[in-house]
Write a structure and sequence with these properties.
The protein is α/β, with parallel strands linked by helices. The chain is 45% helix and 12% strand.
């Protein structure tokens, strides 16, 4: 909590560059969602710095172009591209995954980073509560659609694939029942922060269940979740209270983006994490989750629930 160095040798003050120093990740390819701002941009920058070919999966291609130019200005040899993706609509994910697979690119790392926080009640284009749709359903679907590409890459390259879900310590503060399966779209009982916690709990549960399935399949791909820390980025734009706190206490309590991207980059690249799957990390160290996040039955139930949500909205043709 106060910046003590953990067993990994890193702390809350460690930066993404520091935790990946000396790592040569040349030959790896990564997708980073939400890479046009905040810790997504920093994650993309540092992965590229270590030799990764980074594909930024982003809604705003003009913003992505600016990020790409800034990274190339600092690191002219960086391999970085941008592809359009909005993780909220299922159709956008289908289109992105199809285009990515058509490109023939391999995929070693999938960084499910994009997210929104404490929005007013809204439904996605698929009529799913927006935070749940964006933070969980979209990344669940994206991971499933790209899994065969990751399996093929892991097999052909003999290198471990890694999936990283960017969650939050707010996963501990979901609704009392954890996931409101029967009221996922209920406006009358909606609480913006609890709904955010629910979506972040879903990130951990998704990573855990995916890790279990990958292990059962004997595939050399890991899936983990991370808490980046509280960072004063534009994710706070829908919540004036937290925006105010960020402005007042930001430099004292909150991390900067260099520190905020550290745990994601650590779990994505560091050799200490090899073979570790279905775990939760914060400050570049293993951390305990809530009892709900550790509930294997809840994780399996969420998996089937999410798959059904996607099928209901986009049924496959017979």
């Amino acid at each position: 909590m106060f910046g003590f160095v953990g067993p990994s040798g890193f702390s809350r003050f460690s930066t993404a560059e520091e935790v990946t120093r000396g790592i040569d990740a040349s030959g790896l390819t990564a997708i980073v969602t939400g890479a046009s701002s905040g810790i997504g941009t920093e994650t993309a920058r540092v992965l590229a710095l270590r030799g990764v070919h980074v594909v930024m999966a982003i809604r705003n291609l003009s913003a992505g172009k600016a990020v790409k130019e800034a990274i190339l200005k600092q690191n002219p040899t960086a391999k970085i591209d941008a592809m359009e993706l909005d993780v909220s609509p299922i159709a956008s994910i289908n289109s992105f995954a199809s285009d990515y697979k058509s490109s023939g690119l391999p995929l070693n790392l999938l960084i499910n980073n994009a997210g929104i926080l404490a929005t007013p009640f809204m439904l996605s284009k698929d009529n799913i509560e927006l935070q749940f749709a964006t933070n969980h359903v979209g990344h669940f679907h994206l991971s499933n659609l790209l899994l065969e590409t990751m399996k093929k890459t892991a097999h052909e390259s003999c290198k471990e694939g890694r999936i990283v879900n960017v969650s939050s310590r707010r996963h501990q503060f979901s609704y009392p029942e954890g996931i409101r399966f029967d009221q996922i779209n209920s406006q009358s009982r909606y609480n913006a922060l609890s709904a955010y916690g629910q979506s972040k709990l879903a990130n951990v549960l998704h990573a855990n269940e995916l890790a279990r399935r990958l292990k059962d399949d004997g595939v050399e791909i890991t899936a983990n979740s991370v808490h980046p820390g509280a960072i004063p980025t534009n994710i706070f734009r829908h919540h004036t209270f937290f925006s105010g706190l960020a402005n007042i206490f930001g430099k004292v309590v909150l991390k900067n983006v260099h520190q905020g991207a550290a745990t994601t980059c650590y779990v994505a690249l560091h050799p200490q994490v090899k073979g570790i799957s279905g775990k939760y990390f914060a400050n570049c160290n293993l951390k305990a989750t809530s009892s709900q996040a550790n509930d294997a039955q809840l994780a399996e139930k969420l998996w089937h629930f999410t798959a059904n949500l996607i099928r209901e909205n986009h049924p496959r043709p017979c």
